[in-house]
């Protein structure tokens, strides 16, 4: 019924390939038994159901492929992965390569600091050492903030998020800049989450979406339709609450990250706009 | 193609300044790391060959540990774990060293000690490759153990291993790139940062590659110069040596030094 | 820092194990590809073939002059383009980080193995070549039956210790976000915040495997030394 | 069997052989001697085409050696060579050393090659060591294996380059005995050696070289009693203490 | 000068020297001979304490060698040793080779050491090569430097381990001549050598060893003419072709 190359491929293979992340809490990560779980994967489950119905396949096989930040776009382009269910930011540059669903989440870069550090605002970071993760877009943000607001902090670049977080924890860096939800995940997983707090400042908004091949309007329509219906029915908010405001595996901690104004707005009016 | 390097960056410099500062850190790390590595390596290498069991075992332990853990992991241990196991005051003092020095010193110690383990093996191989007769001749002349090492064994062993030391020199300067994992913005890290800031991947990595090639060439030529300067007259290939006719009969079938290793 | 808690490592063991398997697989493939290709490269240089010889020397020098991290970056961007050109298509064919790693390590190690074998070839006594000539053996038979077997035996300790280095170097695939032993550890650490424990454990794992391998090398060398052949 | 005419061999600017003429008839045994560096090794290596000569002619078994020849192995097959430093293949056992060339070059089957090898190893009285490796044998034994290895190719002529000078004194005799036996079987031989007793016993002719030239050719008895040239006299004076 | 009593030396399970007794008086010259592996080298290396013996006594110049001695170099200073393979230090020039030990061990000044070295190099007729490196010399020259180097320590006794067997035939004589001269100066000497002419000329006694034991001790004339033991007869038969 729907004219879509992706669906045609899924139908002829009898299988759908889902790309997932390994440590992107709570969107997409490996659960206690090393199987992928997460918010985005729950959303994708509904999409899989719909595809099953659409293609009329009685048994649709679901293959999971781990992806990372550098290979997720190429894998979508080559058709190795039909849909990425991760925590991928939608932006103009990426839209030239791939397509995104309507926004499923809104985040913004923030500062995470130690509670006992006495830091209250970004202004207090003057002359301090702050950490960002190599290759993250926070590197550019931090440099920009530093230049624009004349803060004069030293920037260290750690190899990955875990090391950035460790730098913060061991006192090597006074603050860690990253997307708020990512920081919330790291904070929740920390042995003592209360020892860390966010500074009030937040910077530009970043919209996350599910990612799939560019130009397949039929497939995009299907995905957006599934998500919009969930948003309209309140199912979306239930799923959100399950992952963001209740204890989740592997360690049963609570991200305590209630619905933001921006996301509520998008739930009311589903959209894939990026600003 | 390299025009982008002259453009302004977000922090008001030009991209080429990033590269130059990266090169500076790379060079500083390689140069000072080398002297640490050489000094420690020669001592440990000698330690591997002495009669005293305890010393030899210690030297061996050193080599086993430092040679068998990836540099990447060692970097991490020096940077993150060391300050935690030191007395709190000292640990905090270390953590308060501002960047980039806070990354530089751990990287320096890490590379120096890692490379030292490898040099120690070369030195040991060099010493073991010397004909037994040399030590015997020295003993027969009444030279003590110390004098034998000082005047007979070490000078010859070091000359013997110059070619493999060349690869260690190349190795240490290339391993400096691993320091990017603890946040030192050396050459490779800068290239990567430029590539992410400008999306000019080929330019960024191309420029860094050319710089590394030039450095390799310099290191190689330098070592060749040293090799020539300390070469023993009469042992060069096809020099003015008179080939003693009998020696080619008693030469070993394989004169490849045992632990001659090619390193990256 | 909070007190160490190694229990997380135990829970995560299956994932670490799969990372270790990847490291080992990468090592094994790079070893085989590198050794076969490296031997060819060494022979090309040894025969001093006119153009090819220079090309090979340039390739080896290039590989030996650039840090492995940089080589990995290069291949990650270059290999898809090269393949698409070979395939005639316009669009770069992304081949994925895994393939990139296998290809890169194979080609990279080939340069190192070829150096080892080249030195080994030079170390073979000239008398061996002359004896082959005197026995009228063809060039192929000379290398196949006499020279290469000796070179591989003589160079095997060095080849194997290079392979141990290779095993350690596989940790650098983190730049491709691949999940080798180290990658598994740092990803898990992101889930549970126990980075220090993870690194300490994998340091011990690397140490154990590499030391065991070098002991093995020493043992094999004694066990299978050609009777009476020096070393 | 072998004819060498006006042979010239240079290494760079250095002339190692200068206008050398020599004929070896079938069955003849020639001993080459002379001071170190006089070109003895170079001469026999030219006969085997291990060194390429620069001028002159070398004809071995009716085939002329030259750069233009398509396959020098045709000649080498017929010429056996024994080196001062044995040059056995250390990674092959004694019998495999002897089997390699017959199998690869003469196309013998493994069984045939082994049979022939064992036969010749027996001849040099070393068949009980057939499965050992060269490194496990004494120098004298190794050199006898080298002789057997060369004989396995059934050469028409054997060249020896100081076969005993790398040996301990007690082992020289076992090798020389083997060579004497070979000579008595009628093999054509060219030997570089300073073993005067051996030369006296089997040589048809002693050829004395100095500085790249053949200085004297004589019957061994005459040569050792009273060499004609001064240089040969000096040389003999030096090596007989 | 040297007294060896009931000397036993083992390598693992192998007994290299078995109950050896030998006395060397001051000024005496002894030639040691015997088949390869008979323990000749081991014996003289024990005298220099380069090998430690397992049982028996060795007294050199009045000092007993034992594990308990605090400084074996006290003895080694008085004993010069010359090896088959020269063992010169390749990274030092000829004169530096000779100066090293006198300066470091005897505490001579650089000038004194040089003077002594040049004197002894002159004695072995090689002072014109003093600034060359060992690799630039022929074997015979190297061995003469090795002799001069040992003499620079002004030893009371000299040990030689087959000093000529790694040399080309023409170079043997120059080294033997040097040794003869040294003998005539009255040096106490123990030489392992198979040079029978040399033994005849200077030896006070020939000691024949086999399988780790001294089998025969005799006056050289008598020994070469008619050795008493069968083993010595066999041995002489083998090395004189
Ligand atoms: N490959 C070579 N390159 C340069 N010079 C060489 C080469 N081979 C031999 N020569 C020179 O040629 C001369 C003759 O050498 P050759 O080996 O034939 O002498 P020889 O009579 O066999 O001496 P020996 O008794 O020492 O074996 C020597 O001066 C030697 O240095
Ligand atoms: N370091 C060692 N380890 C084990 N065995 C040894 C060692 N040195 C010598 N031997 C053995 O001791 C025996 C005597 O050796 P030695 O070198 O004294 O003999 P030699 O009479 O000097 O022989 P040659 O004439 O070959 O020099 C030999 O069988 C030898 O194999
Ligand atoms: Mg010769
Ligand atoms: Mg000996």
Structural class of chain A: alpha/beta
Beta percentage of chain A is 25-35%
How many separate helices of chain A?
Answer: 10
The number of strands of chain A is 16
Q: The CATH topology of chain C, please? A: MetI-like fold
SSE string of chain C, helices as H and strands as E: HHHHHHHHH
Radius of gyration of chain C over all CA atoms, rounded: 21 Å
Mean pLDDT of chain C: 83
Quaternary status: heteropentamer
Transmembrane segments (chain B): 23-46, 58-81, 101-120, 202-223
Membrane topology (chain B): Multi-pass membrane protein
Domain ABC transmembrane type-1 (chain B): 23-223
Pfam families (chain B): BPD_transp_1 (PF00528)
Describe this structure in words.
The complex is a heteropentamer, with 1 copy of chain A (275 residues), 1 copy of chain B (264 residues), 1 copy of chain C (231 residues) and 2 copies of chain D (241 residues). With 275 residues, chain A is of the alpha/beta class. Chain A has 10 helices and 16 strands. In chain A, the strands form 4 sheets. In chain A, strands 1, 5, 6, 7, 8 and 14 form a 6-stranded mixed beta sheet that branches. A 5-stranded mixed beta sheet of chain A has the order 11-10-12-9-13, sandwiched between helices. Chain A has a 3-stranded antiparallel beta sheet with strand order 2-3-4. In chain A, α2 (39-55) crosses α8 (217-233). The relative contact order of chain B is 0.15. Mean pLDDT of chain C is 83; it is low at 89-93. Chain C is built from 9 helices and no strands. Helices cover 80% and strands 0% of the residues of chain C. The longest helix of chain C is centred in the N-terminal third of the chain and has 34 residues, at 13-46. Chain C is mainly alpha-helical. Chains in contact: A-B, A-C, B-C, B-D, B-E, C-D, D-E. At the B-C interface, α2, α3, α8, α9 and α10 of B face α3, α4, α5, α7 and α9 of C. One magnesium ion (MG) is lined by residues 40-41, 161-162 of chain E.
Brief descriptors of the model:
heteropentamer, A: 275 residues, alpha/beta, 6-stranded mixed sheet, 5-stranded mixed sheet, 27% strand, elongated, B: 264 residues, mainly alpha, MetI-like fold, 11 helices, 0% strand, disordered C terminus, binds adenosine-5'-triphosphate, binds magnesium ion
Quick structural summary:
The complex is a heteropentamer, with 1 copy of chain A (275 residues), 1 copy of chain B (264 residues), 1 copy of chain C (231 residues) and 2 copies of chain D (241 residues). In chain A, 37% of the residues lie in helices and 27% in strands.
Topology:
The complex is a heteropentamer, with 1 copy of chain A (275 residues), 1 copy of chain B (264 residues), 1 copy of chain C (231 residues) and 2 copies of chain D (241 residues).
Chain A (H helix, E strand, L loop, with lengths): L4 H9 L1 E6 L2 E2 L3 E3 L5 E2 L1 H17 L5 E6 L5 H7 L4 E8 L1 H4 L2 E3 L4 E3 L1 E6 L14 E5 L4 H11 L5 E5 L2 H9 L5 E5 H10 L6 E7 L3 E8 L3 H17 L1 H10 L2 E2 L4 E2 L6 H8 L7
Chain C lengths: L6 H5 L1 H34 L3 H16 L2 H20 L8 H28 L2 H9 L4 H31 L11 H12 L2 H29 L8
Helix pairs in contact in C: 2-3, 2-5, 2-8, 3-5, 4-5, 5-7, 7-9, 8-9
Chain D lengths: L1 E10 L2 E11 L4 E5 L6 H8 L7 E6 L2 E2 L8 H4 L2 E4 L11 H11 L5 H14 L15 H13 L5 E5 L7 H16 L3 E5 L3 H7 L2 E6 L2 E6 L1 H6 L4 H10 L2
Parallel strand pairs in D: 3-8, 3-9, 6-7, 7-8
Antiparallel strand pairs in D: 1-2, 1-4, 4-5, 9-10
The structure holds adenosine-5'-triphosphate (2 copies) and magnesium ion (2 copies).
Keywords (chain B): Cell membrane, Membrane, Transmembrane, Transmembrane helix, Transport
Membrane topology (chain B): Multi-pass membrane protein
Family (chain B): Belongs to the binding-protein-dependent transport system permease family. HisMQ subfamily.
